[in-house]
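Suppose a colleague, Dr. K., hands you the sequence of a protein chain of 71 amino acids and asks what its three-dimensional shape might be. Before reaching for any lab equipment, you can write down a predicted structure in token form. Begin with the sequence itself:
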Amino acid sequence: MKKSLGVPAIATVAVLAIAALGAAVYFGVGGEPEPTAQNVPDYSKMSPAEVSESYGKGKQAESDAVAQKPK
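The predicted structure, expressed as tokens, is then:
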């Protein structure tokens, strides 16, 4: 007859999975940070020229970040 892994093995795997998820969250694995009030400009208070300039700077920063990513 085949032996079952049992509750201790299943519990160990669950604890390791939760620990790995916690480490991933703690170390920021998962890509770019979500936009927050600190890093998103308030376009409603800008002139069209300022919005365009801000958008251009953001696109440039994005392409610079992509260029620096290891391949």
